[in-house]
Prior knowledge:
- Helices cover 68% and strands 0% of the residues.
- It is built from five helices and no strands.
- By secondary structure, the protein is mostly helical.
- The protein has a single domain (2-85), classed as Orthogonal Bundle (434 Repressor (Amino-terminal Domain)).
Amino acid sequence: MQHDNIKLNYNKKIVMIAVGKILKKYRKKNELSLNLLANQLQTSKTVISLIEQGKKDPQFTTLWRVAEGLNIPLEILIEEIRNELPKDFNLSDLE
């Protein structure tokens, strides 16, 4: 059981790192500072920074708002995140 929890936490961390990397990529591509994006999303720059560092697991609604704030379709954001994951990564690894 403990091994399963360790594996689940490890797999979540992989996803969180991928999410953060893609969000930072698009934020910089749109030439937005942490402060500006945070203001657009009505959140703090700390929250955005923690997500970008892979230290905070964003809720789905947060991802949706970030996609809107970065002017990219949510589907594209999700596809980019999936492409950032290891090739052998399976979403069932998060169960």
